[in-house]
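Final report, closing paragraph on structural work. Over the funding period we assembled a curated collection of sequence-structure pairs, and we close with a single example.
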Amino acid sequence: YSLTLMDGFLLTEDGEIYRGKIIGSRNASFGETVFTTSMGGYTESITDPSYAGQILVFSFPLIGNYGVSWSHRESDNVWVRGIVASEVYETPLNRYTKSNLEDFLRMAKVPGLVNVDTRKLIRRIREKGALLGVIYPGDPVSSISEAREMIEAMHHPMKDPLFKETAAREIRFIKGNGDLRIALIDFGVKNGILENLLSIGDVTLVPYHMRVLPDEFDAFVISNGPGDPAHEALNDVIQYIKTIKKPLLGICLGHQILARIFGAKVYKMKFGHRGVNHPVRYGERFFITTHNHGYAVSRDVPETIIVNQYDINDGTVEGFIHKELPVMTVQYHPEARPGTHDTRFIFREFERMVKDYEGS
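Its predicted structure, as stored:
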């Protein structure tokens, strides 16, 4: 980007300053600073509800080169509180794209910081863990005191029930292409997950704070979403899920919620998994998967749970089944938007589990 752009900087809670240039909105913004290793899929990432409350750092040195397409969005909103990148391409190379990344951020009133030493920043996050940060317009020399005051007064976003912002507002029925009647308990579902579920049946989107009669459905899906899976605001929906005697699929946050229901513990990771290149072992096979989670399920699980999927890099629990009940979960995003489509078969496995349960 041109050096004529407005100066700006990222101040992190450990006092480090990362200089750059402001794109998008020129307002100050704070959040938990995390990073993704994805080479592409920036549109999907910034519209992923699971990123609510976070400033997203892109490790790949260049983003924005193919612009922003409506069809790539994972929701109707930009959920990140800001982005940080080494370089953002000004003019999209895709002739079918009418909007560039800066315009998209500006319309969403979200700031971006470019021309940043992202390698230095990501190394710091890996050393210290995810850091609270403020993207601030202006020169650090004249604006640092205001930015420090802002970060000192900051309430940690992960302590908020962020899923209240991202969940649907009302119950909605969506006609699908399969035989199943699926109730989707929504905390901020991605479009890609919803589309894959519609390939196996009709979906009734149920906001997490609303209730439907379980007998009206063949199965329930607990969706992805942002925030802490142990937040007290989840207690009511957890009690509701416990009463459901139907097949269950938990994805991402839903995986963590079901783990808690069956007696497992969850914990906050140092800097989380965010990217499209995480290898997962599932039985005797290995898959490349898309991750976006800052919390995980403890490996020490009750005997009723069988952990059947692990992250190859660090052993993180990436999925489990129940010994006696028709329950299956995945920590990663099986729809893989962005990412490879290695694990889209999870939705077919879920369909088979539901039909086997009905047949028995």
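The two ends are 61 Å apart (CA to CA). DSSP finds nine helices and 17 strands in the chain. We thank the funder for supporting this effort.
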